[in-house]
Amino acid sequence: MEHFDFFLTTGFQVVFGYLLPAIGSALIFYKCGIKRRWAFVPFIREYLLGVCADKEREGRVYLGLAVAAAVMSGIADLMGQKVYAIWALLQVVCLSIRIAQLLYSVRIFTALVKVFGKSKKWVLPMVLFEGAVLIYWGLSPQYVPRKKVTDREIEAETKLLGADVQSILDGLTVNINERSVIDFFRKKVLLKDIHMCIPKGHMVLLLGGSGAGKTTYLNAVTGYEKADARITLGEDDVYFDYDKMMYDIGFVPQQDLMRGNDTVALTLSDAAMLRLPSSVSMAERKKRVAEVLEQFGLTTVKDNLVEKLSGGQRKRLSIAMEFISDPTLFILDEPDSGLDGVVARSLFEKLRSIADEGKIVVVITHTPDRVIDLFDDVIVLAKDAGRTGRLAWYGPVEKAYEFFGKNSMEEILLSINQKDEGGEGRADEFIEKYADYMRAEMG
Amino acid sequence: MKKKIRRRGRFSQTIIYLGKLFRMFLFQNDWKVLPMSAVIAGLVCFAVGGNLYKTMEGTLMGSFAISCICVWNGFFNSIQSICRERAIVKREHRSGLHISSYVLAHMIYQATLCIAQAVITISVCDAMKVKLPNEPLVTPYPILDFGITLFLITYAADMLALLISSFAKTTTAAMTIMPFMLIVQLLFSGAFFNLPEQAMPLTNLTVTKFGLTSLCAQGDYNSLPMVSIWNSAVKLKGVDVGGEKPIQEALKAIEENGSREEILMRTAEYNQNPAYAFDPDVVVGCWMALILWSIAYIIVTIIMLENIDKDKR
Questions:
Q1: B183 in a domain, yes or no?
Q2: Which residue in A11, A280, A361, B293 has the fewest CB atoms around it within 10 Å?
């Protein structure tokens, strides 16, 4: 009788706890474009359900929680109840993890229901009778996902230029073959096939939709996140000489990252101490700080606390902190965010004057048309079919209008944005057109 | 090849950041931790200071309470110090900041705060006439031994909070983790709460265990009388057995014989704890443990912050 009870309990657990959910998941995976055999691998199944639901991060957390719960209950089983207090403590931890798992499964199922375009009423039955509901969804032809995993991870087939451009001595040469990351055992290509030369004295607009890889591109160019690439600034290889070059490249982040409870003069003075060579004397350093304060119109507020500055003043201070070391390459990530048109215009004019001093200024902005006359060139990055950032244009602003057949930068952006982002979805067309254009230019 | 230009080294960067931290002490209300430590010390002295270093029970409870205020002070000193400027540190790391210099600046700054708090706590105890150890063990001055212990408990807790602050992405996250860590420190001190035998090794993970042990040893815990049994007997003196009150009579006889103190010392003999022996090795051992924990927390903090570039935007 005892054996019978044991087999009954175990059989029940195997069928309802493993087999039915695995079969149901296999059917769902098939519809979503994932290999069905993964449904029978515990833990991976839960993660891939998250992937089907377009909630990969939640799937990962769920997987982590499931492994932690299994390890904890394994330890508790091994130890037994010899030391009841510890056993009970482990059970409490297990219970906490199970509660978190339940919450994550609700998140995943809610997203899955959305992907399948069905009512949220399905979430509760799915949590309670996962196997049965998944089998029903898997078998019924009425339940079809709006988005397949394969759609999201399609291999890029868009044409490549695949050739490096010749380095120039008086400017920045970028030859990025690929910038990829390994994310949860999978390779994700973030940028591919980007080649250009930017001469000194040029102010360049970096244009691209959300997720096109603008910041990844800037990080790769500055050597902050290295890519499979060769980046040279004049004669120097940015990657090879990164420790020396980092002071020759100024990067102004989007947010004004400064300590609010320090004065303007001390903030700039500390930045000068960090960035200027140690051979610079104190008198020279003070002179440089005073010059930069004057150049950025901050002399009158030099004794004010940073938190008391206006948005425009704070942005100028943020730029001045990088400018203090007199970098050759100056990169700004949305310097005009939060600024009104007049202040933004004046800021870009300041950047133009910096470029006119023989520097290279690269700027990301989401409102390019109000200041486009100040730029020499534009870089257009776009997501190709494989969601990889690619170069759709680099060259003079006027030629960009011609190339895209548009009259403004916003129109260009709209043309390369994906359809599900409200764009025209013509990114691949322009990427290929630009590759052909470049091939012709390079002979 | 570009000619190598020398930039500010780690030492200079540490000085720059020390300057920043001391300016923040003034401008960003970080100074508030000092009066707060005085108020907390005052409250603890008022509540449990009466029997500290006078009886075994009072010493255990008082030492535990003093360890707790040190841990509390240490936690509050630095729990938000890195996470509140995480994005700034990331930017500065990109511009050539050495994480080791940044952490060293914090270590020096926090050490200054912890010394000030130890001095404040001792001053408050003295002002409230709380008995402190009067026999030296390690240094020639008992008050210095006591102060070093307070400093090391506070500093180890401070470095643990700095570690939490280095991996917490936001101040809210840090403040959520802190109470949990505080509970662990209090529960697993290993003396004040009775733990299962199997859980005792966990006490070595806490700052409070070493602080409490050191404070008890400095007060010569094992030479103090134990009053809890006497007090229990006093509570039972009215118990009637066959029309008589034998406990009351026995207590009366002991008082008349003048052997109360002897009884209290005799009961204490059975409750002595070799871990709290009045021995310099015990105190030095505790100090070493606290220093080692502080170093371990600092190393992990540096490792955590070296990976700050991996923060998602």
A1: yes
A2: A11
